[in-house]
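Chapter summary example: a protein plus 2-acetamido-2-deoxy-beta-D-glucopyranose.
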Amino acid sequence: MAGSPPPPHRRNRSSLLLPVLLVLSCSALLGQGAEARPAFACGKEFAHLPFCRRTMPVHNRVKDLIGRLTLQEKIRLLVNNAAGVPRLGISGYEWWSEALHGVSNVGPGTRFGGHFPGATIFPQVILTAASFNASLWEDIGKVVSDEGRAMYNGGQAGLTFWSPNVNIFRDPRWGRGQETPGEDPLVAGRYAASYVRGLQQPYGYEANRLKVAACCKHYTAYDLDNWKGADRFHFNARVTKQDLEDTFNVPFKRCVMEGKVASVMCSYNQVDGVPTCWELNGYIVSDCDSVGVFYNSQHYASTPEDAAADAIKAGLDLDCGPFLAQHTEGAVRKGKVQELQVNYALANTLTVQMRLGMFDGEPSEQPFGKLGPSDVCSPAHQSLALEAALQGIVLLKNDRLALPLSASRFRTVAVVGPNSVATATMIGNYGIGRYARTIHQPGCNNVPCAGNQPIDAAVTAARESDATILVMGLDQSQEAEMKDRENLLLPGRQQELVSKVASASRGPTVLVLMSGGPLDVTFANNNPKVAAILWVGYPGQAGGAAIADVIFGAHNPGGKLPTTWYPEEFAAKVPMTDMAMRADPANGYPGRSYRFYRGPVVYPFGHGLSYTSFSHSIAHAPTAISVNLAGRRGPAQANSTTGRLLSAAAVRVTHARCDELAMDVLVDVENTGDRDGAHAVLLFASPPGGHRAPFRQLVAFEKLHVQAQSRARVRLGIDVCKDLSFADANGIRRIPIGEHTLHIGDQKHTFSIHAAAPGL
Ligand SMILES: *[C@@H]1O[C@H](CO)[C@@H](O)[C@H](O)[C@H]1NC(C)=O
Ligand SMILES: *[C@@H]1O[C@H](CO)[C@@H](O)[C@H](O)[C@H]1NC(C)=O
């Protein structure tokens, strides 16, 4: 396996299966019992060994165990498929399990079948992010870890889940953008911390014990799979220190520091040990086969032993792939790496296993030991999957309030489009069929929609129905791991189908877009015959029901786009391989994301309508913030009379007294319409000019319910050092001095930041 890139299909099956298969498996298994699995380690016979003593501090147990292992035994523990040590009563362990949006069988550590035929499938992450509801993210993590732990107890999953994927969705064409929480560092960072907290649910002394162990991946600036001949195994991303610090690394830092994640996965060419400087309490795993790729494709090291030694010395603790098991012994024998370094790696992995209770004997006697088959796909879990889809769905267009449709007026509905096939089961049984009689015509037989297609039959169905719902967009044939898109348009003849059906439709036409990445649907946005447009991501097992509930008004949509929807010209002009976030006026490079790109958009980041309307007012916000500098800093930039820093200056975050620098903004939200609704308040800040800082940055967000014709107040906290700083060209975070502006909807508020150097 080393030498050839890993099979690309292994890790994205979860999203492929998303709409249909697992819905069925989820309903079939309630109320069964499973046999408990035997102890992973420290069963009765071995319980006297010191490393098995639950009451002893974990680091002492780890030290004891490492002291008992031979070099060969140690080396076989450095890989995902770790060998057992039978003489010490330790079983083999497969580290690779995944749970991006539900426990999945993408990694070899998890398999379905028997008492566990399936798991609850939540929407793909990009849609869940669109809810802008951090408590939902944490709740999903808790449910997923209930199911993961239940499957572990039944012997069908590991406890180490290599999720979430929190890379910044930098380019709209990225095939794996769907797995991420979008383009904004704050959203991605809060998603990472919330989902990880939900998954790990730390407990016990110093909250050191873990329900399951999560993993934030792929560190860092990994967001290209295969685009016009550039693939991730050979692509050498050139990223500035500035973009790393204030864009790409932000979610990882928050994942480690706020989420306290137990692991970070490094992408193909970056095993640098960097996360350790944020005090990662856990292990670093390589992306699968990356150590082999690092040697074979990138020719970085001259012998396999050098590659193994370099990886371990750089801080890698676990190799997803066989390479370290094959070459580390040789590397130690040739003196390229010391056994002590191997011990450091093992200490990190064994510590996590001990924190998971794997060395505590019988699983059934441990906290979470009673979770079993009835805790997988329980009614509560399934309703959370529906809730997540409902909260994420984004209403992009709603001309003359065409939506919601009233079930009493629209009795017959044509359901058209290639993605209506993928969701046929749900639409028939739980979806639109609950509200209206449906006439189903695919129009395009598949998502690529090339060549001869049954468009005419769909046109006829639309002509004969009271309303038409087109379920269009992408699937895994267009965007996936190892598959980036080349343009942002609907594939093949989909656009033609939409236009023809819309113009023939007797009643309103509703366009439902399934996709992870953005689509240029300007044609539909401008077409008055397309009354409404919804974006539904890949909505998971309850997607059909959620779409119907939104269309027929049982749920008022409140999702907002977590990415910028660029026009096709963006893709035509900007190479995917250009990693720069910041615009470069000198060569016409437009920059990326709402933070740096100011060109035309199809829909902006944060766009999302509701069936009601909301207005904001700022009830309280500071007008001036004083940054006190720690020690005698900054006099070079200060006004010698006043001691204040000059306005063009920007203070280093490490020089500021950050603990004093929290600010609160109170916002009143009024629901001025006649329906209750949920609303995400997005608070942006713009710094003073002249710094190559983002011209706008999300600094806080909060989702709240507001009843019709009433008002609610929300408090948004801003951490000045984290949220109002940006990186300079050297990657050093600074707080710009001068006038900053807050934006909430159409409301603005300005405040100034000044700095005082002590002793002047
Ligand atoms: C956020 O999600 C939780 C579920 O975790 C839900 O109970 C709550 O109502 C949601 N908040 C809003 C404003 O939608
Ligand atoms: C320093 O502050 C004083 C008082 O506000 C002002 O008059 C002076 O112009 C400032 N000097 C500089 C160099 O900005």
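Key point: The two ends are 64 Å apart (CA to CA).
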